[in-house]
Amino acid sequence: MADAIHVNGLVKKFKHFTLGPVDLALPQGCVMGLIGENGAGKSTLINLLLGLKRPDEGSIEILGQPAQSDSAALRQQIGVVLDIPGFPSVMRAAEIGKLLSAGFPGWDGEKFRSLCEEFSLPQKTTFGNYSRGMKMKLSIAAALAHDPKLLILDEPTGGLDPVARDEILDLFYNFIQSPDRSILLSSHILSDLEKICDYIAFLHEGKILLQGEKDGLKETYGLLRGSRSEIDALPEEAVKGLRKTESGDEALVLRRYCPQAEPVTLEELMVYLLRYAKGE
Amino acid sequence: MTIIIQNTSPLPIYEQITRQVRAQILSGELKEGEMLPSVRALARDLRISVITTRRAYDELEREGYIQTVAGKGSFVGARSQDLVREENLRQIEKLLSEALKLGKATGLGVKELSEMLALLDEPEN
Amino acid sequence: MKKIWALVQGDWLNLWRSSKVIFGMILLYEVIYLLAGEGWIFLSVLSVALGGMLSYTSLGYDERSGWNRFILTTAYSRKDYVLGKYLVALMGTIGGGVVLALVGLIADLTGKVPLESGLVLMAGPMACGTLISLSIVLPLAFYFGIEKARLLNMLVIFLIFAGAGGMAGVGGSAMEEFPSLITGLNFILPVVTVCLLLLSGFLSVRIYQKRQF
Asked: Are A173 and B43 inside 8 Å of each other by CB?
């Protein structure tokens, strides 16, 4: 079974920033979270996956086809939520639905309508007057309505309150009940990714810092809190991140050396690897 | 099937699942032939990754407690309750042999050890 | 083709809701002309240029909303998008021309301005002029984008009006001096316009297919 997304040696150069070389693989039927700080290259990577930008080097395959192909059949299979929703601001939900229905052979108008209802999206209000959260919900409804095999989402939960994020999470879980469907999403809200993701790719300054099964990462790393002397006593290779305070130290450690370490969340992992990193 | 996951537990999530499934098989809560939720449905209900649930099911299948039929689902295997019982008996034997050995080294025979066992049981009565 | 038509319908809905000002202007100018008479003819002829400019306006809206980027992730092709805009340009320009012709007819019927002033006849050449200008302007817009080139915007709008007005001027004076020229113009001009438009369309499609976002 071909990977949902397969990236090999991807490089994209800009004036002040280079993305890559990046290798990435999302097996079919899985969910991958793309994390990293602002400017790490997440949106650029997603733009490349969507064919909005062309790579300087390397190859990208989506559902077994090259990403560059302007094939309607491929686009039909990918549901997209961009960082900027991109719908005409003077149109209402139903009109946007009509506009998109001609754009996707597999468009399910009934599904779109029912999703809009589920999201309580006002029928009479024009898109420009939607709140940030509503815009996101409409984008997600549109992405799901044409029954894609792959969802690619750039910050889909940004601007949503916790209740809405919970609703969206359920939607994603329902989406992947089918083993031939996959999701790639980038997000700052790591608590969401924490739950649903099977794989995590950690992007930093255009390169992949970490990539692998989310569970694997959580089994590899742990958090240890202790006195200065206790933490100092740890072997050099064990400590990947260190935060020193007057009241004790916190270290990101490799469980291999410190099996007693506590579980670490993705957020802590990211902050410790970036902000409190200990040099290699 | 009720599974409770504790995020703060040092046990990896997949292991929490396998332990609870085994316990439920032993207690009879999960009966022979009963169908388990699919790996994806379980992942959705527990809000965890599919890879975790799959890993738990794979291990349970490897140990013989459940069987997966392609296209249908996963079922509690025949004799699963016996399997759990057997495994527990094995563990008990192991622990008892260790206690015996230690007892002998300390000069305690079977009689003394039995008395200790009875005493240990009392507070729970 | 059905896809392009859906896009075009969307564009007109968008334009109708967002650019009521422009439609209002067209109506206003025509009314002024009809009421005030010949001296205001230059206002009336603007309808053609304004109509044609709507395609450019539409591009601007798409850019600002992000639709021009999002649409590339749908099964609409880049070609569909570009050709849709050209269809809007045609519809807008011809629409403006029809308005002009109608107004000329009304003016004649109500005895305000005799038909000989050639207003009706002006509509054709003016439409061609506008379309020729758009043939130059649209590829530039697809290449550079609209937001980025404010100065270009000014130049563009000037060009569109100049194209329309130029034709009106040339057509008008030529008709007075060389009546026979009209027939020649009536043949050559549309042909040239169509050719340029096709070339421009082809170029724009290429440009948009290569462009990165």
From this structure: yes
